[in-house]
Amino acid sequence: MKKQYKAEIVAVGTELLLGQIANTNAQWISQQLALYGINVFNHVVVGDNLKRVTDTFKQAHERSDIIIVTGGLGPTEDDLTREAFQAFSNLSMTEHEASMKKIETWFQKTGWTMTPNNRKQARVFETATVLENKQGMAPGMIVQFDERTWIFLPGVPREMKSLFNDEILPYLYKLTGKEQMIRSTILKFLGIGESTLEHELQDLIQKQTNPTIAPLATDDGIIIRLTAKADSSEALERLLAKTKADILDRVGDYFVAEGEKTIEQVIVERLNHKKVSIAAAESLTGGKFIERLVTVPGASAVVQGGIVCYSPDVKMNLLEIPKQLIEEKGTVSEECAILLARNVRDKLNSAIGISFTGVAGPGEMEGKQVGTVHIGLSIKGEEDRVYSFQLQGNRNVIRNRALLKGLELILNAIKL
Fold it and tell me: Which CDD domains does the entry link to (predicted)?
């Protein structure tokens, strides 16, 4: 009978206790461990105090088989993970030559002065398996001690995830003796609510076995995580492809992307494919729409630019919205939204113009309720359109939901 491994995740950092940053590392690691059938029994957060970190490590060692520690591997005095584990284990440390060389090279290339405390990041336990940190300085470590597996990872999420995917998952695969391979993929949907999507897939979800189907609402729409188990990569691909096809047969009209691809990446790809450009006039969203698009490589070929037209004066002076229209209809109106989209398209010489105007709160404006949103869409050669919504939430939620509606409208307008 195979051993049932118990895992624990210890996050080191006073900033986590103070709520200055969220402990997203533990959430993400738990999700990955679940795929390997490794049960996580404890999440612990401890501040940057040597005695408390040491005591926490002792407690974790007593109750868990696999202890994953994030944070506390940096160069400063409050980075105490190594010191605490040494105080508990009495294992010797040494300077890891390859890691030290990497740190020195980085400082030489950047021209920064390397202070002596940076050498601390290259210190590792003599018995450790040292893991190269391709995203940062401090290496990760795997240490076998007293029939326990200790895994030390940086606290910076991108560094932690890179090491976990490249080094820790393969290690755990061998450690736990899994006979089957496990693979997950994410399907992203936009324009359909979580309850509606679950209703459409109800029978598939109820009879799910392999792959499993897990819907989840996110800030950028709905995702479905498909997780399959099989004896080979080919079998995994077949299982995932079949289930994906069954899902898209039901709700394919709302499908946006798979895996790590974002909504804005899909939009930029489609705009480039069609060789059409876009511009935005943003009152309510304050530039958030264009910001999302320009994060994508290749956006410069299709994103002409945007105008943040927050005040009535900017709407009138830069985008030539008639004063009479604003006095009669208001800036939060269908008429204003249409004209903003059309004029920004013309002024920035673009094929598509989109506009956002509305009331984010906290109070009413121009007699319009909080959450009133109008999005204008002007596409060369087509009739101008306006879409009106009554969105719920606080100020930032309304702005983000309006942005998401705009992305959805553009996706639908430029379907391949």
Answer: cinA
Q: By percentage, how much of the chain surpasses pLDDT 90? A: 82
Please give the sequence-ordered ranges of beta strands (E in DSSP) within 139-252, or none if there are none: 140-145, 148-153, 181-189, 212-218, 221-230
Among 35-44, 83-92, 123-132, 378-387, the minimum mean pLDDT is found in 35-44
Which contacts (CB < 8 Å, 24+ apart) does range 228-234 have? 228/182, 228/183, 228/184, 229/180, 229/181, 229/182, 230/180, 230/181, 230/183, 231/179, 231/180, 231/181, 232/181, 233/181, 233/183
* pLDDT of 338 strictly over 60: yes
Strand partners, 307: 281
Q: Give the structural domain span for 271.
A: 263-413
Find the CATH number of the domain harbouring 304.
3.90.950.20
**Could you tell me if 254 and 267 lie in one domain?**
no
Question: What share of the chain has pLDDT > 70, as a percent?
Answer: 98
Provide the greatest CA pair distance for the chain.
Answer: 80
Of the candidate ranges 47-51, 231-235, 240-244, 395-399, the one whose mean pLDDT is the lowest? 231-235
Q: Give the angle 188-190-196 at the CA atoms, nearest 5°.
A: 100
For residue 187, the domain's CATH number is 3.30.70.2860
Same domain, 27 and 158: yes
236 shares a domain with 356:
no
- pLDDT score of 180: 61
pLDDT of residue 227: 85
Co-location of 335 and 306 in the same domain: yes
H helices within 275-394, ranges in order? 288-294, 312-317, 323-329, 334-347
* pLDDT value for 2: 59
- Domain shared by 165 and 61, yes or no: yes
